[in-house]
Amino acid sequence: MPYVSSRPSGGLGRLGRLGRLGRLGRLGRLLLRLSMPLLALAATPAFSQNWPAQPIRLIVPFAPGGAVDQTARTISNALGKQLGQTIVIENKPGASGSLGATDLSRAKPDGYTLMLALDSQAVNHYTVRNLPFDTFKSFDYLSLLVTTPQVLVTNNDVPAKDLEQLVTYLKAHPNTSYGSAGTASAGHVNSAQLSIARQLSTQHIPYKGAGPLLTDLLGGHIQYAFAGLSVMLPHIQAGKIRAIAVSSPKRSAMLPNVPTMSETIPGFEYPTWIGLVAPKGLPADVREKILAATRTVMRDPEVAKRFADNAFDIVNNSPEAFAARVKQDSDVMADLVRRKVIVAE
Predict the structure, then answer these.
(1) Which of 82, 214, 287, 321 has its Cβ near the most Cβ atoms within 10 Å?
(2) Are 191 and 226 in contact (CB under 8 A)?
């Protein structure tokens, strides 16, 4: 009968081997837990390198026909070509652009949902109740793309050819109504500032964008408005509405005979701006891809000509400069709200 040693081979019995395996198992689990953050970091570049792998949704938080919609349709094809994916425009009007901004704030910060914000984005937290987002913390402000002068226009039934004639008429008709592209939009701010400067008591009617506003202005349902020149210009040139003044620092090349507001009321300047915004937390390299593609598009001669023909001025500034402009406009609105010239909806 062969000899069988009572000592385990190699110094380990069954229990010893199990104990060793258990220690190795615990060590393996510990190493796995320690390596998970590294694995996550390693996975991020792979995701970003493949971005974009599907169409990109571009929210326009106003009705078709306004300056934001014009901007989206001017850049979408060129931006899609730069990124190698289709840009799908989605109009989502309401609450001065805050319905679209709410949608954006709830989207994944993966680069597949972007938005074009109007100037009202900077001030809605003062004028729209119960916003489900934080204006300064819920978004990545990527670039202020363009500005367009605000133009003060009247329908042709208003017997005024210049600003002082209009003020005289409005004081004699205190129930006159004016429109804006939405509460707290640049048009509303400009009209409120005119009311302060000239002690007017006219009635504000907010719309879901400049397109519906224009329809009612042409139809005689409102008498005057400040609105983006890009939308109003064809109708001014056709003689359907009358341009009184522009709220830009200098006269517009498109309307050289129309004075600035500051020629009559010094310091009166508040143009419309439109900028590209994303949900907060974009991966850094996705963010850089979007910024690089946007810079290329805004420098494209064909895109630049389309903007110029529609009275837009290209800015395309940095994220830091854009965020600073949002804060600046927020401070202007804070003063108007404090003085109860503009009130919450």
Answers:
(1) 214
(2) yes
- Secondary structure element (H or E) that encloses residue 54, with its range: none
Indicate the SS3 state at residue 287. Answer: helix
Q: What is the pTM of this model?
A: 0.78
118 and 189 assigned to the same domain: no
Are 64 and 91 in contact by the 8 Å Cβ rule? The answer is yes
The confidence band for 25, taking pLDDT boundaries of 50, 70 and 90, is low
Q: How confident is the model at residue 282, as a pLDDT?
A: 97
Considering the domain architecture, whether residues 174 and 247 belong to the same structural domain is answered as yes
Q: Is the dihedral of CA 161, 165, 167, 169 positive or negative?
A: negative
Residue 259, in any domain of the structure: yes
DSSP codes of every residue in 70-112? HHHHHHHHHHHHHHTS-EEEEE---GGGHHHHHHHHHS-SSSS
- The rounded distance, in Å, linking the Cα atoms of 299 and 279 is 25
Q: What is the pLDDT of residue 274?
A: 97
Encoded tokens for 259: 């004075």
340 — alpha (psi -120 to 50), left (phi > 0) or beta?
Answer: left
CA 263 distance to own-chain centroid: 30
- The length of the chain in residues reads 345
Predicted confidence band of residue 291 (pLDDT cuts 50, 70, 90) = very high
